[in-house]
Amino acid sequence: MAYHLLQRDHEGAQRLASSLDYALQHIRHCEKCNNFTEEVVCELCRSHHRDAALLCVVEMPADLLMMEQAHCYKGMYFVLMGRLSPLDGIGPREIHLDRLLKRTQDGLVKEVVLATNFTVEGEATAHYIGELLHDKGLKITRIARGLPVGGELEHVDSGTLAQAVIERREM
Amino acid sequence: MIVDKQRQEAQPAFVLHTYPYRETSLVVEAFTLNSGRVPLLAKGAKRPKSALRGLLRAFQPLQLSWGGKSELRVLYKAEWQGGLPPLQGTSLICGFYLNELLMRLLHRNDPHEQLFVYYQDTLAALSTHEDYMPILRGFELRLLQELGYALTLDHDVTGKPINSPSDYCYEIGRGPVKLEENDCSQGLRLSGTTLLDMGRGDYSSAATRVQSKILMRYVLNHYLGDQPLHTRQLLKDLQQL
């Protein structure tokens, strides 16, 4: 891409450079949800149409977008911008869990929905946050896992299927 | 006919850690039965439809097949073996601790078959027992033994059996030295009871629990060098919540 821009598209290169420059100058973290925004508090956090009693914790901004695309959730968010990864040296301080703790103490949040990934690191992160918020008078929930909707047993991977059997529920 | 000696089929293995590699691939640090710790390139493992996706998880028994001649071999097949309940909560963090120890202390391509079996048993124990401490101590002792740094727990440096009421000074590389005077500047002071309890795997006494933890930390730090264990800090942070 660098060669193409230098050789054939100076104008495009200039646009890209100024966009990046603009982003670096103006984009910061929202004071409430920690997501990227150009304002102090982002539009989603200012909205009156969302349920302030629900706070969903996700790892990355892309995860928040996916949650929004699923049209299943009307609460607020907190974006960790990472996850605990002990073997990479990423601990609770590196992902600012103190800010999350503060965010949950605004008197409005009643339930914290843990939507970190179902990787071993995501699970460790969910466990740590669960312990951190324990005894704080909040309901702590974890999103469920199992077979994908429309998924057939024949085509699902063994790990997912094994977990779904372990976590089967009564009906 | 050329036989590719580097090719391995269906080796029992565990994933210790993975790193992202390029856009869609992973480098997997695997602990395998016959080849020890090996780095494997899992091509396209992050693609949504990859057969490897969801399989390359730590703490789950797998069978891995790989080949190639460079140091980073190419993983071409992973099969789920199952049978181990997934680690959750604090036992999961303990699992990371085991993996960090193996990542830091095992050399690559150095097989440790007995340790592999012990690691598998340790994961099974972590998933079913509430009291993690004896399980972790047992693993640390076994790991050091496999690496050739076994602790001496039943006799002192002169060959005399450990005497339960006496105090000893544990010196790394030598073993327990009976304390005649109060000087233990070259080692770590602890009771004979702790040494004997550890030898038997009996961690019912509160004093043994405290002293064995300090001893293992002292010895492991010596072999780990200056860089601290991240998982140890995380376990400490969790306990303080």
In short:
Chain B: Pfam families: RecO_C, RecO_N. Chain A has 171 residues and is α/β, with parallel strands linked by helices.
Secondary structure tally: strands of chain B: 8
Choose one word for the global shape of chain B.
elongated
Report the top-level CATH class of chain A. Alpha Beta
Largest inter-chain contact set: A-B, 23 and 34 residues
Order of helices and strands of chain A: HHEEHEHEHEHEH
Global outline of chain A? globular
Largest sheet, strands/sense/barrel of chain B = 5 strands, mixed, barrel
* Series of H and E elements of chain B: EEEEEHHHEEEHHH
Q: Rg of chain B, please? A: 20 Å
Mean pLDDT of chain B: 92
Count of helical stretches of chain A = 7
Helix content of chain A: 25-40%
Radius of gyration of chain A: 20 Å
CATH architecture of chain A: 3-Layer(aba) Sandwich
Structural class of chain B: alpha+beta
Mean pLDDT of chain A: 93
InterPro entries (chain A): DNA_Rcmb_RecR, Rcmb_RecR, Rcmb_RecR_Znf, TOPRIM_dom, TOPRIM_RecR
Zinc finger (C4-type) (chain A): 30-45
Domain Toprim (chain A): 53-148
Protein name (chain A): Recombination protein RecR
Description:
The complex is a heterodimer of chains A (171) and B (241). Chain A is an alpha/beta fold. Chain A has one domain: Dna Topoisomerase Vi A Subunit, Chain: A, domain 2 (3-Layer(aba) Sandwich), CATH 3.40.1360. Chain A is 39% helix and 15% strand. Chain A has seven helices and six strands. In chain A, helix 1 crosses helix 2 (10-26). Chain A starts with a helix and ends in a 5-residue tail after the last helix. The mean pLDDT of chain A is 93. Chain B has 241 residues and is an alpha+beta fold. Chain B folds into two domains: 8-80, Nucleic acid-binding proteins (OB fold (Dihydrolipoamide Acetyltransferase, E2P), Beta Barrel); 90-237, Recombination protein O, C-terminal domain (de novo design (two linked rop proteins)). Helices cover 36% and strands 23% of the residues of chain B. Chain B contains six helices and eight strands, in the order E-E-E-E-E-H-H-H-E-E-E-H-H-H. In chain B, the strands form two sheets. Chain B has a five-stranded mixed β-barrel with strand order 1-2-3-5-4. A three-stranded antiparallel sheet of chain B has the order 7-6-8. In chain B, a hairpin with a 3-residue loop joins strand 6 and strand 7 (175-178). In chain B, helix 1 (89-105) runs parallel beside helix 3 (132-146). At the A-B interface, helix 6 and helix 7 of A face helix 1 and helix 6 of B. Chain B: InterPro entries: ARFGAP/RecO, DNA_rep/recomb_RecO_N, NA-bd_OB-fold, RecO, RecO_C. Chain B: One of its GO terms (cellular component) is bacterial nucleoid.
